Amino acid sequence: MTLIAQLTDLHLRADGADPFHDPYQATRDAFAAIRALDVQPDAIVLTGDINDHSTSDYGPALALLHAAPVPVLPMPGNHDDPDAFRAAFQNWADFAPDHLSFTADLGDLHLITLETTLPNGLPGLEARHLAWLDAQLRAASKPVLLALHHPPFPTGLPHLERHGFAGRAVLADMLQTGQIVRLIAGHSHRAISALWQGVSCSTAPAIGHGLGLSFSGAAPHRPMATTPRLELHHWQGAQMISHTVSLPR
């Protein structure tokens, strides 16, 4: 078996300020919840937005994440500064030369992560990302867990989909190889699940603030106070079972 903890959208700020709750404490609470499990995860996968957009200093984040009970695999989100992120986490993951994607063997699974923030700040994948992914899939000898920051699948939420997702059609074709057993993402700040191209897909709730829910796009898409949560993904050799764990507010 393989057990993976997913934390996402911490939105840490160097000044520690947050109008809704303390994401540093929420992260420590997440580590405590993980430490209390009777089986420890193989790793914690952070699916992006570790820092808030106003913060390029990863010193506080590094100090926080060094206290994790199991290895941490950090991915960037659209709020992360890519150059500062690479410099801060260069010893935490083996990033691709021209983008912040990486792979890792986690028990019976092969993790492939993809950086999904394009140079223009919009979500998607360019030819270089897709060629790299194709090479990683060809080399993989285990079932693949694919992790992204932005969800490439339809969420039904106009605010999340207003910018589209570049490269979606090519990625959709690649999902049909049968190698990818699960796709996980962040960015939405809420739990969303879907079956897309025959693959079970999900986004995780945020460790940081929540976001308003609107199926019409008429309601403001604004930060709000919600209970921080993490996801546990349990691979049992033939299926992935996921659990949502609520943390103190």
Structural overview:
By secondary structure, the chain is α/β, with parallel strands linked by helices. It contains six helices and 13 strands. A six-stranded mixed β-sheet has the order 4-5-6-7-9-8, with helices on one face. A five-stranded mixed β-sheet has the order 3-2-1-12-13, covered by helices on one side. Strands 10-11 form a two-stranded antiparallel sheet.
Q: What is this structure, in a nutshell?
A:
This protein has helices at 23-35, 59-65, 82-89, 127-139, 158-161, 168-174; strands at residues 2-7, 43-47, 72-75, 102-106, 109-114, 144-148, 180-185, 192-196, 199-203, 210-211, 223-224, 229-235, 240-246.
CATH architecture assignment: 4-Layer Sandwich
Overall radius of gyration: 17 Å
- State the share of residues found in helices, binned by percent: 10-25%
Terminal-residue CA separation: 31 Å
Adjacency order of strands in the biggest sheet: 4-5-6-7-9-8
CATH top-level class: Alpha Beta
Oligomer: single chain
> What is the domain tally?
1
Q: What is the molecular shape?
A: globular
Family: Belongs to the cyclic nucleotide phosphodiesterase class-III family.
Keywords: Hydrolase, Iron, Metal-binding
Protein name: Putative calcineurin-like protein phosphoesterase family protein
Organism: Ketogulonicigenium vulgare (strain WSH-001)
Which keywords apply here?
six-stranded mixed sheet; five-stranded mixed sheet; Purple Acid Phosphatase, chain A, domain 2; 249 residues; globular; alpha/beta; 21% helix
What are the SSEs and their pairings?
Elements: E1 2-7, H1 23-35, E2 43-47, H2 59-65, E3 72-75, H3 82-89, E4 102-106, E5 109-114, H4 127-139, E6 144-148, H5 158-161, H6 168-174, E7 180-185, E8 192-196, E9 199-203, E10 210-211, E11 223-224, E12 229-235, E13 240-246
Parallel strand pairs: 1-2, 2-3, 5-6, 6-7, 7-9
Antiparallel strand pairs: 1-12, 4-5, 8-9, 10-11, 12-13
